[in-house]
Amino acid sequence: MSHRRNDQIDMVVPFVHFRDQRETMERPFFSIAKQKRLKEIDYTSPDGSVWVRVLPNQAYGMATIWDADILIWAASTICEMKKRGRNDIPRKLHFMPYDLLKGIGRETGGRQYKLLRDALFRLQSTSVRTNIRAEKAKRKERQFSWIDSFDDTIDEETNASRGMSITLSDWFYEGVLMDGGVLAIDPAYFGITGGRERWLYRIARKHAGGAGEGGFAISLPTLFEKSGAEGTYRRFKFEIAKIAKADELPGFVLRLEDKERGEPHLRMIRRDLVTDEVLVEAAPKPKRTRKPKAAPALPLFRHLSDETIALCRKAHPGWDVYGLKTEFDHWLEGDANREPKNYESAFLGFAERFVRDAN
């Protein structure tokens, strides 16, 4: 009986946070282009200590940054099981296509089901080689695909899926479970439509998330190498300048800084830490990222003011304000009648109850 249970759909859990695997956020592991990519990525860090090589399949192309949403879903599922105290966390995850698509903010029609299968083909057929996680003084490299395999059970009468499963690679699975292996991301990430914008969000979250008021600055040539982009540096520089001018990334401010000598730098700062009145006044107001029609009804684009953040931190020292915000958003999603008239006041009340109950 227990063997049959493992083959059933038992992996659908409500996410407290979405999690991304930290090491995949700052290196060029995925194509950021929407068109099929057949050119490999060959990246070496400036100091020569880290290298990544990604080889696409000639039939399916390279796994894209949109395909990586499936890996974010998988990492989030594993972290949720770990949080709930499950000891036998599997590499093979079972799910219904509808639940996965809805979870990552996608539409759930027949076309999206086909696109999901295409994404799984790319994740399985893309080959990655890297020395990340190699011990010092030891030469070690790993080769893997993002998923080892996937299954899809089809109803012969209706031709509808009765459930799917993916088996994660050892490398990705180990990376999610290791200490500090994941970072929480804003659910608004799934509404970002541009490949460069998605990639920039992951870079910003990785480097600027805990960098303080000064944020994180990186030269554009170095950023270009980290992107693995196929185009020219000149084109990349133009696109980054356009993205920085629009300044629409959820949670992060982008500023292009010209240097007296050399190429410009891109500075990334958490929006809640931008206190310079001139900078705030000059910055374009963040626009709402396009949300797919079938996306979860989360209040993705509500932001907490500096005053509310300060009040929350003072009342609950040691607690992650953004983690509490995510808890609150998911609680709101559970019932349309919970929609508050004053979001920030309701958030403070929720945080008070949540922290009290947790203690």
TrEMBL record:
It comes from Methylobacterium frigidaeris. This is Plasmid replication initiator protein. It holds the Pfam family RPA. It comes from the Bacteria. InterPro entries: Replication_initiator_prot_A.
